[in-house]
UniProtKB/TrEMBL annotation:
<protein>
    <recommendedName>
        <fullName>Lipoprotein</fullName>
    </recommendedName>
</protein>
<feature type="signal peptide">
    <location>
        <begin position="1"/>
        <end position="31"/>
    </location>
</feature>
<keyword id="KW-0732">Signal</keyword>
């Protein structure tokens, strides 16, 4: 006579727990096809610089505001989590060429200037490092901005004939042998700059001479008095 083995209840529960644990482990295993996050790709199509010299093309004053901008064209592609292309468009970006160096060629003389945070700079042909140029022969100013060897911009400005004459005289009034002149001659220089329409330079020269005579109160007093006499209308 055969007897059927009877398993205790605890043993059967233990077996069921093992099966349940195996099922949970299988369900928590990572899927073979891992999902990826959506992606955006940006490709640079073009890169350029542009120099704005203002108007007119021919300079008739020593000063000119220059602005440099930098432009980029991008191709934008957006993909979903499965890598399928969802959108494609182009994006145009123009920004100031901020705090970068611009080369200025004046005949045989080259100087550099740096743009500000707005991509602007102020060209002043009476700056001390420019006045050595032969203004009588200066006809063209060349501006050169270079971001990379392949990305650059150039622009030109012309010099008015009358301005060349003014620059030649004004540079001598501002920089030549101030120490050898007396206070009356200093005042004459300042007044002549004003007559040439260079009020900014006249004011700068006046302030510089007041500063230079700080160590000699008597000389400074004579200079200030001479200035007052020159600006006081004669009765």
């Amino acid at each position: 006579m055969m007897h059927t083995a009877t398993y205790p209840l605890a043993a059967r529960l233990l077996g069921a727990g093992a099966v349940l644990g195996l099922l949970q482990a299988c369900s928590s295993a990572p899927a073979s096809n891992t999902m990826v996050a959506p992606q955006i790709e940006r490709e640079l199509l073009s890169h350029s610089l542009h120099i704005e010299t203002g108007e007119p093309l021919v300079m008739d004053t020593p000063h000119r505001n220059i602005r440099v901008t930098e432009s980029r064209l991008f191709s934008i592609r957006q993909y979903d989590a499965q890598g399928t292309l969802q959108d494609e468009h182009r994006q145009y970006q123009t920004l100031p060429w901020a705090e970068r160096t611009l080369t200025i060629q004046l005949g045989e003389l080259a100087v550099t200037r740096q743009t500000d945070s707005d991509g602007q700079l102020r060209l002043n042909l009476l700056d001390e490092d420019i006045v050595p140029v032969d203004f009588d022969q200066l006809r063209v100013i060349e501006l050169d901005a270079q971001a990379t060897p392949e990305v650059r911009a150039e622009a030109t400005l012309l010099i008015d004939r009358e301005l060349r004459s003014v620059l030649h005289e004004a540079s001598e009034l501002i920089y030549d042998n101030l120490e050898e002149d007396d206070v009356e001659q200093w005042v004459d220089r300042i007044e002549r700059l004003r007559q040439l329409g260079l009020k900014e330079e006249a004011s700068q020269l006046e302030n510089m001479l007041i500063l230079l005579t700080t160590g000699d109160p008597h000389l400074q007093g004579e200079f200030v008095q001479a200035l007052d006499n020159a600006t006081t209308p004669q009765e």
